Prior knowledge:
Blueprint: E1 23-27, E2 30-31, H1 40-59, E3 67-70, H2 72-80, H3 87-104, E4 107-108, E5 114-115, E6 117-122, E7 133-137, H4 143-151, H5 154-172, H6 178-191, H7 201-219, H8 227-241, H9 245-254, E8 263-268, E9 279-284, E10 296-301, H10 307-310, E11 316-317, H11 321-324, H12 326-343, E12 347-354, E13 357-365, H13 370-382, H14 388-393, H15 397-404, E14 407-408, H16 410-413, E15 418-421, E16 423-426, E17 429-435, H17 438-446, E18 451-455, H18 463-468, E19 471-474, H19 482-490, E20 493-496, E21 501-504, E22 509-512, E23 515-518, E24 522-526, E25 531-534, E26 539-540, H20 546-558, E27 562-566, H21 570-578, E28 584-588, H22 597-608, H23 612-637, E29 641-645, H24 659-669, H25 673-682, H26 695-700, H27 702-721, E30 727-732, H28 738-759, E31 766-771, H29 774-778, H30 780-783, E32 789-792, H31 794-802, H32 813-817, H33 841-855, E33 860-863, H34 871-879, E34 884-887, H35 892-916
Parallel strand pairs: 4-5, 17-18, 18-19, 19-20, 27-28, 27-34, 28-29, 29-30, 30-31, 31-32, 32-33, 33-34
Antiparallel strand pairs: 1-2, 1-3, 3-8, 6-7, 6-8, 9-10, 9-12, 10-11, 12-13, 14-26, 15-25, 16-20, 17-24, 21-22, 22-23, 24-25
Amino acid sequence: MFKQSKKIKKSAAPAGxxxxxxxxxxxxTKAEGMATAKTDKERRMILGGKGAGLADMTxxxxxxxxxxxxxxxxxxxxxxxxxxxxxxxxxxxxxxxAKVEKLMGKKLxxxxxxxxxxxxxxxxxxxxxxMETILNLGLNDKSVEGLAAKTGNTRFAYDAYRRFIQMYSxxxxxxxxxxxxxMLKAMKEKLGxxxxxxxxxxxxxxxxxxxxxxxxxxxGAEFPQDPTEQLWGAVMAxxxxxxxxxxxxxxxxxxxxxxxxxxxxxxxxxxxxKGENSGTGVCFTRDxxxxxxxxxxDYLINAQGEDVVAGIRTPLKLSTLDTQMPAVYKQLCGVxxxxxxxxxxxxxxxxxxxxxxxxMLQCRTGKRSPAAVFQIAVDLVKxxxxxxxxxxxxxxxxxxxxxxxxxxxxxxxxxxxxxASGINAVPGAATGKVVFxxxxxxxxEKNGEKILLVRKETSPEDVxxxxxxxxxxxxxxxxxxxxxxVARGWGKCCIxxxxxxDINYETKSMRIGETVINQGDYLTLDGNTGAVYAGQLELKQxxxxxxxxxxxxxxDDLRTIKVRTNADTPYDAENAVRMGAEGIGLCRTExxxxxxxxxxxxxxxxxxxxxxxxxxxxxxxxxxxxxxxxVGIFKAMAGKPxxxxxxxxxxxxxxxxxxxxxxKLSEVTGMAIDKIKHRCEQLHESNPMLGHRGCxxxxxxxxxxxxxxxxxxxxxxxxxxxxxKVLPEIMIPLTxxxxxxxxxxxxxxxxxxxxxxAAGSKLKYMLGTMIEIPRAALLADKIAEVAEFxxxxxxxxxxxxxxxxxxxxxxFLPTYVASEKDGGMGIFKSDPFQSLDxxxxxxxxxxxxxxxxxxRPDLKVGxxxxxxxxxxxxxxxxxxxxxxxxxxxxxxxxxRLAAAQAAIDDSAGAKKVSKKK
Length: 917
């Protein structure tokens, strides 16, 4: 009898020789697996998730059919032995089988009263549908008759036998499932019935004969009749499914790299297909879609195994079980409460009812929608099952990301033609008309068209079109290429590195295999998978629940490091504040030059200028644009600090790229087109990343610095006069030397002070630099004599430290990052452009902070590279004492979460140290 009050027991790990045990029995409230390790996590690494759950439920006195778990180390040994079961493992399996037989009073495959077992997989982490299951093992031509006689139900016995033959043939012996499915369908048509339970006993007998003949024809042998032979075949089939293509791919997608194999669970069969007082079901202790605290699930009467999830029949809602089997439903509700209280999380349960008796077959942490993730976490805190810190630590960055991006409607995508796949750089989905140039993208967007910008690659000149687009698709690049970085900042779906697309800009078309896509044709991008679909598919926008806001509020209460944003426009700034940003850590002024044609022409006019006077005249046209932008940004940030980086890219990135552009610039400047082209050619650089850019532009063209500093200070003075607090921080990029920085800081300070004095203002501002060159980190103590703050630009610092181009490394980095199991070399644990290289680049960052503060103890330090929004990198920034991290607006919530988790880890570590003392 189930007792809800009974606690789930735990015991210490065994000592000595018992540690070599590999197979663990469970049954009749005894679970050997409970003693395999001290923590649940460690036990799952040995028993797998399913095995650990079975042990927990058995020890709690829940109605679990007895069986045994063949541990994960056996799977590892299976592959080390050339896909063979070791003799000691076989010996332990038979010993545990004997225990089950003794407890049940039956023998496996007995001709009169057979014991039947299921053989199921169960890795430490849930991999639903990726590995194999075999039910009703132990049936043969003799034992099926014994089962029929013992139960008095011939139809039930042969239904179980046909299921076993089909599962064993496909799973253990590698035969195709489809022919047997066709035979099953043909039998129903022959008998004039629609569902499996309507097939008569004679029909099932005939079907078993057809299945065995199919096996004979394809394997050249009779279907195995020896139950022990069946058992070895099933165990090896489950172990073998660990390396099946679908399982390997799933682990790659889910980034599961720390598991060594799957466990196998051999368990006494209970039967939900014995009639109208039997059934099987799957349920969740809460609604996995909303997180609501209601019992949620489906079941089928007179069904077995995978029937509920396979979609063979329309299942019934779990709530109706209360009417059909009230005693069973009441018992199941008690199980729900006990397991959720024990695991302190929503559980996914599988159960079977045999002749009115409930049996529990599985419990595991249930998968849930993005909204449910936060609702469940907050509710569990309110119910005092979790602390706020525990709830925060359960949230992953992906949980937050999924809340903000439009999603592809699954039903819409089900039958849609998939054209190609690329690298899923930014999650979400987007649909629209294909456009191949940024200018046309902007024009079409103005006319109300929803478009997708498709390019071989993007550059700063494409920013206007990128902003106008719903999504971005490029033929080249990686997850930190220009397209990816910009798209991520705007929360736009982006797929890069889609090598299957062949773009022809002249014909405004592209080819994908045999398919030609013309400008104006519709495509749909799935940024979650990297898939490109033909046509306009349905999208859905996930809601941001109140529970999300509540949990992020808890994060803000706990974290100690500030979170800023990278924003270049008032719109971006306002959006980032809504995301919880506490300031701007990087405003890239060059992005402002491409918003309109007037701005583009003004910067290009400045670039081709032949003397200082002409250059100043062009810059004078840019000054009001920049000043107005800064006014908008300062107002949007409402007193929060704003770090503004002076112009950084080399000038050639701003020059015209086609004849129409040259013609337009010629009309504005009065210069001959050939002369303009010659000037642009002069600006060409062999290695522009290391060329004439950043502070080097202001050293050679100080009038650029003058215009930008003037725009910043005048905007700040204007906003301050309106009564708003303004905290401008002027950042000079690409510093390599103290003297170089001092020249620019002194010039900036003199100009800023003169403007402030002339306006009669009391405006306060700061002057600092971006540490993005190794030499600057090495000489940080000298540079800190001049700079009031440091911002680590880890995008370029990573490139220069590792000697890798982030736009080109996508061609070989996957080999460096992928594990040897996945065909790579495992040189890097992760992509250094996504997660900070803490050993190498991180050493420079840490050194730079220490050296900088040795000179200036109150030095403000932050990070503004893409790493500022990546969880592990944020935790590193916390550990080295940064004041803030800065990231794209849509990554601000992720940074808030990671910062809180870092503070929690710090607190836990401090408590451990205190206890040791």
